[in-house]
Amino acid sequence: MNNQTKPRNVITLKKALEFAEAGRFAIGSFSPRYTPMIAAVLQAGQEANSPLIVQISHKELVRYGITPAEFGDEFYSQVAKQNITVPVVLHLDHTKELATIAEAIDAGFTSVMIDASEKPFDGNVKDSKEVVEYAHAKGVSVEAELGMIGTTDFVETDKDEELYTDPREAEEFVRLTGVDALAVSCGTAHGVYNVKQPKIDYARLTEIRALTPVHLVLHGGSGVPAEMMQQAFRLPGGGVSKVNIATDLELSLLAALGREERMSNLECLSLSPERLVIGREAVKRTVIGKIESFVCSAGEAGRFVL
Length: 306
Fold this sequence. Notes:
Blueprint: H1 13-23, E1 27-30, H2 38-47, E2 52-56, H3 58-64, H4 68-81, E3 88-95, H5 98-106, E4 111-114, H6 121-136, E5 141-146, E6 150-151, H7 167-177, E7 181-184, E8 189-190, H8 202-211, E9 215-218, H9 226-233, E10 240-245, H10 247-257, H11 265-269, H12 273-293
Parallel strand pairs: 1-2, 1-10, 2-3, 3-4, 4-5, 5-7, 6-8, 7-9, 9-10
Helix pairs in contact: 2-12, 6-7, 7-8, 10-12
GO molecular function, one term: zinc ion binding
InterPro entries: Aldolase_TIM, Class_II_FBP_aldolase, FBA_II
Binding site for dihydroxyacetone phosphate: 191, 220-222, 244-247
C-alpha cells in the first residue's frame, strides 16, 4: 500500500510523536500479537478518542506465525470496516533484518524499528543509518535503540541483560543516523516484572532529552506503575512520547479465555465467534485502561492536524 492510498489518519511515527510531545502525553504502542485482536486495539482508540500505535515485532511475527502482509492487511481492513478516524501508526517493532523491514514497508507499515543495540556503537550506527536511508526514501519513520533493554519473557528480545543508554552516545548516535525516535534503556524491561522491579532513571532521561532532538521511547510498559510512567513523559523540556505495551494485552486475552498458554495466530483465528468476542472485549478494556490512566492520551485525537 503506497502513501497515496493510505487513509489520512494513518500517519508516521514522527508526526504522531510531534503532537504527543507538544501535549505532554505519551502514545501507547500496543501489540495485539494476534491478528483478530487488531480490531480490539483500534476500537479502544476510537472509543477513547485517542491516537494510538498498533505494532508487532519480528520475533512476534515468527512466534505467532504471521507475515507482515497478513498483519498489515488486517490492520487496514479494520481501519476501513470500523471507520477508524483517530490518528493511528502501523509500526514494526524490534527487527534486526532489513528484509523484514522491507516487507513491512511494502505491507503499508508507516514506521519501523531497527534494533542493532547488541552490536558495538559503530555497528549499530551503520545498520540504523542504512535503514533510515531506505525507509525515509519511502516516507516511513524509523525508531532505533541505543543501550540494551532487558527482558523477562524473551518474546520481543533475546537478552535479559540491561545496559543503560549513555546520554553523550545518544547525542552522537542521533546525529550520525538521522533516526526519528530513540528507544532508551533506563530501568524498564520487556515482559512482566516478577523478581526484578521496574524503575526509571529520570535524571538520565532528562540528560538524553536535553542532548537529542528526537522523540524518546520506553519499552517494557507492561507492569510499570502509572505514576512512574507519567513522570517520564512530563519531564521539563519533553520526556518520553511513546510507550510499548504488549504483554498486558495478551494476559488479558488469555485470562478471558481461561487459558494459560499462548496460542498461535492460526489457533486464535480458529476460535468460535463467541470466544473471539469475549477475547476482543477483554483486550479492548485493557487498552482503554492504559489510554486513560497510563499514557493519558484519552481525548487527545482532536489535537492532531491530519
